[in-house]
């Protein structure tokens, strides 16, 4: 009986991943709430500038990049951010991936610092650790 439950859960997870991959923009925005992430940053005493690639957008783009089935490139992650910004009636970002790649490099340190200080980013850390075994493009 437990085997069927695990099998059913695995099927549900796979189905959710496929659904997220089929969406344009930043589908992880709906799974990792921005207000909750901001509260975690504030609780941890972490400050950041209001930029296109703030910690939340960078995390959502990275998760889409790492979990995406097709194109794991930074350019594809930036395309997702661009679509998300246009949908939300914000100024479109550049298609150049250098700013995203720089923000992505800071993401690991930011998540670890937040976790160390207050242990609130458990969802994000779990997703980052899960993705470490996934091939993710660098450019």
Task: Quickly describe the structure.
The protein is mainly α.
Could you give the topology of this structure?
Blueprint: H1 2-22, H2 34-43, H3 55-67, H4 74-87, H5 98-118, H6 122-131
Helix pairs in contact: 3-4, 3-5, 3-6, 5-6
Can you tell me about this structure?
With 139 residues, the chain is mainly alpha-helical. It is 64% helix and 0% strand. It contains 6 helices and no strands. The chain is globular. It starts with a helix and ends in an 8-residue tail after the last helix. The mean pLDDT is 81.
* Helix-strand pattern: HHHHHH
Classification by helices and strands: mainly alpha
> Roughly how many Å is the radius of gyration?
15 Å
The CA-CA distance between the termini, in Å, is 45 Å
Write down the overall geometry: globular
Task: Please name the defining characteristics of this protein.
mainly alpha, 139 residues, 6 helices
């Amino acid at each position: 009986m437990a085997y069927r439950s695990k099998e059913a859960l695995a099927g549900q997870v796979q189905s959710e991943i496929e659904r997220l991959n089929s969406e344009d923009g930043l589908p992880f925005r709906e799974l990792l709430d921005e207000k909750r992430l901001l509260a975690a940053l504030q609780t941890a005493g972490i400050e950041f500038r209001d930029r296109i690639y703030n910690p939340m957008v960078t995390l959502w783009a990275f998760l889409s990049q790492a979990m995406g089935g097709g194109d794991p490139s930074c350019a594809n992650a930036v395309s997702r951010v661009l679509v998300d910004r246009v949908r939300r009636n914000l100024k479109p970002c550049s298609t150049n991936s250098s700013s995203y790649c720089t923000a992505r490099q800071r993401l690991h340190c930011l998540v670890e610092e937040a976790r160390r200080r207050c242990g609130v980013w458990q969802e994000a850390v779990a997703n980052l650790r899960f993705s470490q075994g996934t091939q993710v493009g660098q450019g």
